[in-house]
């Protein structure tokens, strides 16, 4: 009964698990450096064919291009093609993934149409502008990480300053990590068994008298498979404990999002983020057609978790023959935010499926609810996510049954009013 | 009685009108791309001679140079010479026009001596700094556009946020457009009839949950003529209505500005912007010598308009043999601001003659007075301005008679106190 | 009784004095331009060997490298080696000196381990972020100047705006000068007598309706000597008087700083900056081992001055065989701040010995105490500092005796409470 497609979905999961668990075992992985601030290495333009055998180059295409014009001057875009999907990674924007296309057709698989058309170089971005909403001047990626010092809404938080006093700090929307250029990027490939490839990157969020957090990202692709795996870590490089926050702001537009699309999370509870969203909580999982003037609706999901600590969600179109499956380790990403923004096409018709260490409330509120984790000195935490493109009815069905297996017969509670938030003066 | 010079003035107007009206008719225009973010095209250095015939290259010189050092690192300057004037356009700074020189002598025609000597790359500019006055770190152009979301003084305005709430927004001085790099620049020339040349540029002021405004600028030069024509448009690319503001902040210093210089607008009324300016309103049209410690005086002019919807102003030196004529379509630029800043030479001895969609009050005040226009979804509005260098007594006289023809015998009202402004808490 | 080392110390002082006093006399100095915004000259990569004779190139090495990756994209680092010390100067970061190493061993002489590892390009820095603490995102230099419009702590000050009104201005930590790219850099060398070499640089802190201050820096090295001399000036280019502030924020970590290290200033008085520092004022001159969670202690020193107007301080390790001597002209740098930050190694184990025109309080407080100097129109003020590496017990002893000679038998007063600060509403 299982189609080839559904087999692929499962196979890619299996492959990923093997890869992750044996990460340190691949002694034959060749490391091809693309960028390294330590020794100031960089390639203005890079082509994998100059670095590997013709046999490998026939399976994998990988190029770095430097972009020009407007706000994208100097941006470096890494495009990697595994024969099934072409993934575009923005080196200067915290290794955000701009989008994913079908290798053959060039048609979009993952991504959306933001009104921000250029890939904005962070050197032009002032995160503090517009009352902390400057992040929105560059927002157009399929997957952008929010964090690491703070990941949610702008607003005031308190911190202990260098002089030992408590000071107010104005947080900015979704933090800095998405606007920090990568310090290191490498391609790792086993030349004897080039069935998979890793893009390893490092982004440093550091300052004096402030956080010293390092994100290390492994983006793993399997040749010919329609999926992407992320295995990432955040390390606190300081000698003192440090809070962190991370949200994987993953955004879908057409073709997956359309009138009648549906999101299927393994959900223990669903809570509207504010009164506006509360009015539509009963249909939180259904999407409307593009609606000019639509005001965003945000829902806070507590996921159910399976015996392996995994949870997930499926987003699929109305016909149920096109979609995305996301699964992730709930141990470090125990919360899910669903952001519905079915605005007019020109203004960004998009939904965000966003696993995170917490919800996108201001950090002060998140801390109040115990959702701001702490890393001890030198401590590292690991994050795992898998994204699979579903291109048939059967693969969508298989993916939904995977979610149902996590949900089991456990109930899904719908709250009809937003959480009561603490008041800070 | 008409000299060659005055003829040239009129001829250039005529030529411009022909060009404007037949814009789409020039099917033979060759388009030479200089810069295009869409396909990441750019020329580090460009010379027109590599792209056109020797015959054309003998009439037109056009070069792009990349600047280095200090705050101008990476700035691209386009210089175009029509055999009479050499015009310098800053590609990274919203296509502002740095200045205009005599082709033969290299002497300045339009421009001024700002204390800001370098052409500052916007990547170094923080518009929000100094309470929203960061724009002043880069201000040294002859013509810089203010806008497009807001164009006036810094201060608080209200906007509807993504969550549907009313939020405060701190506007920054003169808006963002002058600090956005151009996304597209082209040279258009008819190789069979290379008597005129266009520089076409596109600047995108976009963000998510914010305005999506596109400025398209045609700067048109006629071979051998001492004038510049701008034909520009602003389009609202959003699916929802959007306010806009635009002010053409055109600034003159020596040689036109000196002790005894005079501005002659076609003015229905002149109102001082504040109490300080009110004290000198009776001599609003006369300029003093450089005065150390001078405090700016700003006058708000309602122009008279002729049967073609045009209005204008002339600025000329004491002797009346050197000056500038500006005419513009009052349909979309119905207001004129005159900024007198006859400070010490080192601090910026300059006057701004500034046609606009409104005055440079904070947008909240402008909206109160009904001077903030709205573009419906996809709507476009067009702006037309002509600048002519007047290099003789006769050309100055001809230009003044043009203004007088607009003014006719209609009265000019001088208000002796500033407008009463609304109070917002 | 004097060792070779102590002779070197004195000799280098003597040499410096000669150089300074005869600055304009060296008509044979060859000027090799590295960078000049005026004519847009720059060298992407530069090597002195391409510009001087082999004989000179054997004594002096000088290279410019362009860095890549992370936040240091595009930063230009100038490294100059006089056969004894290798000094690294960051062209884009206000000619800050990143650090100084032994030529032979490559081991650090001056510098420290900041948690900020990359040399951050100012295009990524928003000084206004974090309530005016954005400067800390790039702080990792051995010597960074604070200033020039303001040099101290963030906070509100009042200024007279362009409209003549009094406005509030939010100052940012330590001012802008350390994040302004140099506008001009030259190497000056006398080819007939190449015993010394100058790096001359110009940084412009300018804006419209604001300060126009030019810093000109001569960094002077003597071949084979373990010392660095700075002869600098600030000029007010405006036609009106202008305040300025400058603090030479000179920072030492290992090897000089360790448990038991000591600072020996020629001190008339020592005052803690706040109550926290007051608790440890009795041992203000002694350093602890790295201490996780340490809160900075800052002490304000009034120096004693010798008959030549010079004052100084020595910092040395516990054994007294490794250290740094600083001397400077107290005429224009009459105040000394000692910043103790013996935090964990990972968080920045460092002390700042900081001669300045004042202390690092907010400018409003400094003005209240009469410590904000004013430059009249066109006026220039000169600043002189000498830094010598002490690599033996005898050189440390000689240096201390130099300080004692300044101190003479004059008393050193320890204040046990911080100064009473004015309250501003």
What does this structure look like?
The structure is a homotrimer of 425-residue chains. The first copy, chain A, has one domain: Beta-galactosidase, Chain A, domain 5. Chain A is 13% helix and 40% strand. Chain A has helices spanning 4-21, 54-59, 129-132, 275-278, 345-348, 363-368, 393-407, and strands at residues 29-36, 41-42, 46-47, 61-66, 76-81, 85-90, 96-102, 108-110, 143-148, 155-160, 166-171, 184-190, 196-206, 212-222, 227-236, 242-243, 245-252, 262-265, 267-272, 297-303, 310-316, 323-329, 335-342, 349-356, 374-375, 380-390, 413-414. The N and C termini of chain A lie far apart (60 Å). Chain B binds chain C through residues 65-73, 114-118, 121, 123-124, 126, 128-131, 133, 136-137, 139-140, 274, 276, 290, 292-293, 295-296, 343-348, and chain C through 35-38, 40-42, 74, 92, 122-123, 126-128, 162-164, 167-170, 172, 180-184, 203-204, 206-210, 212, 237-240, 377.
- The CATH architecture assignment of chain A turns out to be Distorted Sandwich
* Overall form of chain A: globular
- From the 3D structure, determine the CATH topology of chain A: Beta-galactosidase, Chain A, domain 5
The structural class of chain A is mainly beta
List the helices and strands and how they pair.
The structure is a homotrimer of 425-residue chains.
Chain A: H1 4-21, E1 29-36, E2 41-42, E3 46-47, H2 54-59, E4 61-66, E5 76-81, E6 85-90, E7 96-102, E8 108-110, H3 129-132, E9 143-148, E10 155-160, E11 166-171, E12 184-190, E13 196-206, E14 212-222, E15 227-236, E16 242-243, E17 245-252, E18 262-265, E19 267-272, H4 275-278, E20 297-303, E21 310-316, E22 323-329, E23 335-342, H5 345-348, E24 349-356, H6 363-368, E25 374-375, E26 380-390, H7 393-407, E27 413-414
Parallel strand pairs in A: 19-27
Antiparallel strand pairs in A: 1-2, 1-12, 3-4, 4-5, 5-6, 6-7, 7-8, 9-17, 10-11, 12-13, 13-14, 14-15, 15-26, 16-25, 17-24, 18-21, 19-20, 20-23, 21-22, 22-26, 23-24
Helix pairs in contact in A: 1-7
